[in-house]
Amino acid sequence: MKSAHLKRLSASLLLVLSAANHTQASELFPNLPGKTFGIQVKIQKFTAADAAEIKAAGFTFVRFGVWSDSLTAKAYQKQVSDAFAAAQSAGLPVLLTVRAIKPLTPTPDNVDELTKAGESFATALTGLEKTYSSQLVAIEIWNEPDLETYWPTRNFATTFVPFMSAVCKSLQATAQTTPVVGFGFARAPTAGSASTVALNRIVSKYPKCLDAISYHPYGMTATQISNAQSFIQQNFHLPGVISEWGVSALSSNGGIDGQASKVSAFIVDVKKLNIPLTSIYEWRNSESGSNEREKNFGLLTTDGQPKPAKMAAATQLNMQ
Q1: Which molecular function term from Gene Ontology is one that the record holds (predicted)?
Q2: Domain-wise residue ranges, the chain
């Protein structure tokens, strides 16, 4: 009898925690239904068939990226709208990550020019929000700016804050109905890190700019992720969200079976941490990857054949 009573209490506690997690997610991201796991796709190859399969696997949103400085091209606009249409066909909202790929300004040391570039970028964000707001989980500002590869000036320490301050000032001046997260850091903010220094300056001056801090905890343990979540909440008074995490099916990771095991364990761990939003990288292997590691993060092969990681994810995501 005692054992049965404890089991009932444990089950009740799990239901309460699950409900709390769903409540937190729905309050922060109104367009995100109960479950909080999504997966990244590439707009160039994302189809309605992919969307249906993603939904069936238990994912509740997709993440894809848009380049702000390509949005004036008609062909690119169609590519973006087609990706949104594919997501909508399966009822999947979108975490939209937006960044620029061209130089922000010819003279990155000029604060006035960085400010103008930030204002222009904010205008692009506002345009996307107006067009697709009904389908957006959130707009994510940038992707891994703390890596030189993804920050156009290659000098994060001196140019990130002026640019993003202008972005945030502009966004705060307009009515935003879509949640905004940022800044997709490659590494979780820690005490004294460049991302923490930048966030302290931006968030303190523009406290209504961001609804959450996003980062990519590649290689981090559950304890390290938990500590990162606590650090973000305590220092910036905002929740942390995981906008990208994955594991490549390299032989050093145990191949496709090792990838499956790690994906399964990650989902189990993150569920326990009640993180409002988590996006896994990625749906299909990437032909454009620069090396074997980069090419093999997909839950499917490039031609759409499922890897064991797909079933591992679906098993955990569809579990009550």
Answers
A1: hydrolase activity, acting on glycosyl bonds
A2: 23-317
> Which stretches of the chain are assigned E, i.e. beta strand?
37-40, 61-67, 94-99, 136-141, 180-185, 212-215, 240-245, 278-280
Amino acid at 218: Y
Torsion angle defined by CA atoms of residues 162, 166, 171 and 173, in that order, rounded to the nearest 10 degrees: 130
Choose the weakest-confidence range: 12-16, 60-64, 242-246, 256-260: 12-16
In the three-class reduction of DSSP (H, G, I as helix; E, B as strand; rest coil), residue 134 is classed as: helix
CATH superfamily of 23-317: Glycosidases (3.20.20.80)
Across 73-82, 129-138, 168-177, 308-317, least confident range: 168-177
Query: In the 8-state DSSP scheme, what is residue 305?
Result: P
Nearest Cα to 86, choosing from 32, 25, 43?
43
Q: Which two tokens stand for residue 170?
A: 């502009």
What pLDDT digit, counting tens, does each position of 197-217 carry? 999 999 999 999 999 999 999
DSSP 181: E
Whole-prediction pTM value? Answer: 0.91
C-alpha span between 170 and 118 (Å, rounded):
8
Go through 96-117 and write b for each residue having 16 or more CB atoms within 10 A of its CB, e for each that does not: bbbbbeeebbeebeebebbbeb
Please tell me the distance from the alpha carbon of residue 202 to that of residue 195, in angstroms, as a whole number: 10
| Structure confidence by residue, pLDDT tens digits, 253-299 | 999 999 999 999 999 999 999 999 999 999 999 988 778 899 999 99
How many beta carbons lie within 10 A of that of residue 180, not counting itself?
21
Q: Characterize 273-299 residue by residue with b for buried, 16 or more Cβ atoms within 10 angstroms of its Cβ, and e for exposed.
A: ebbbbbbbbbbbbbeeeeeeeebbbbb
Nearest to 65 by CA among 53, 49, 50, 83: 83
Reference 263, options 304, 315, 303; nearest CA is 315
Q: Which residue did the predictor score with more confidence, 197 or 25?
A: 197
